[in-house]
Structures are given as C-alpha cells and as structure tokens.
Specification:
The protein is α+β, with helices and mostly antiparallel strands. It has helices at about 5-15, 20-30, 35-45, 60-75, 85-90, 110-120, 145-150, 150-155, 175-190, and strands at about 50, 55-60, 75-80, 95-100, 125-130, 135-140, 145, 165-175. The mean pLDDT is about 90.
C-alpha cells in the first residue's frame, strides 16, 4: 500500500504526541489545516485513526499501517534528535535520524543530498555505523561523527536498531512535513 508523505507525517505526529486536533496537527506538522483535514478523513476511512472530541488518535490499525509503511520503505527506525543543529551550524528547528536497512552507495551521496534539499531539508548527513570501532562514519567525508560532535554521536548510539554496517540518514530543517517528505524521497531513490 502506497501512503503519502502527508499521511506518514500525521501518523508519526499522532504516535509521538498522542491525541491532537487538526489545528494542533497543522501547527506541529507544518501542513495547512485543509491538508490535515483531508488526511485525517483518509486515515479515518482506513481505520488508522479514531476521531473524537479533543482530536484524533492512532488506533492499533494505524500503528500497524505506520509500521508496515516504514518497513516497506526500508526504514527500521525514525526519531527526532536534538544534537545536530550544532553539527550543521544551522538554524534548523528540528532534525530527524532514520536507520535504514538499505545500503547507500557512496558514489550516490551528492545525488541523494540534492534530492533531500530539493524536497525541503536544509541539511543532510549520511552515516554508516562501522564495527569494531563502534563509530559513525560520515560517508563521502570519510571522517567520524564523534570528531565533529561527541554529543551527537552519543545521541545516535542510543538508537535501538543500530548495528554493524547499518546506515543512517540525518535530515534537518524547519517543518516536520518537509523532513518526512524529504526522507521518503531520499529512501526511495537509494
């Protein structure tokens, strides 16, 4: 089942924040209120959310849809991280890390970076967790993340799905929706 970046964003926001109304979802996600209303109606018709007084909340069917979608995209884990705005030296409001189950060819880094930026990210970093060093190698730069920021490396080491030779993508920018859309377009382009 193909799901849009808008639907994925709403599902992720409801999972993270719990019950939310469409105005709150619009403010948190960065999508217009009309788009949020349309997406909520689509998700309700699929049984992914329950709408009640006080807003919408994820159902067990919604959790299942979210997990299946992420798995279908090859995403093992996605979460917001806080220690990367100093790595990128940007005014980014938020950053996401995604652990993916696909391999990233180092020759395609520039193309993937361009896709990420075109789709709304302000900054992107591609990393590989290498063993036995147990460190994050920054692809294309051939240096380690902890050489740039010990705090960022420690934050990533807490990822539940990280293991030897797994790849991660860090995306930073202004709005949740732009970052999710950017991530989806990068992952399907790998």
């Amino acid at each position: 089942m193909q799901m849009s970046a808008e639907e994925l964003t709403v599902l992720l926001m409801l999972k993270r924040y719990g019950r939310m109304g469409r105005y709150s979802l619009s403010a948190v996600s960065g999508m217009g209120e009309g788009v949020v209303r349309r997406v909520l109606n689509e998700l309700r018709s699929q049984g992914a959310i329950r709408v009640m007084k006080g807003g919408a909340e994820l159902t067990s069917r919604g959790e299942e849809l979210l997990n299946n979608l992420l798995r279908g995209l090859g995403i093992d884990e996605i979460r917001e991280v806080t220690k990367f705005s100093q790595v990128f030296k940007c005014e980014c409001k938020r950053c996401y890390v995604s652990v993916i189950s696909r391999s990233i060819n180092e020759d395609s880094i520039v193309r993937l970076r361009d896709i990420a930026i075109k789709n709304g990210s302000d900054a992107v970093l591609f990393l590989k967790f290498v063993c036995p060093q147990n460190r994050f190698l920054i692809l294309k730069l051939n240096s380690y993340l902890d050489e740039l920021s010990q705090e960022a490396a420690e934050e990533l080491s807490k990822l539940g799905s990280i293991s030897c030779n797994k790849y991660t993508i860090i995306l930073c920018g202004g709005e949740n929706y732009q970052l999710i859309r950017s991530l989806i377009n990068v992952v399907i382009s790998i």
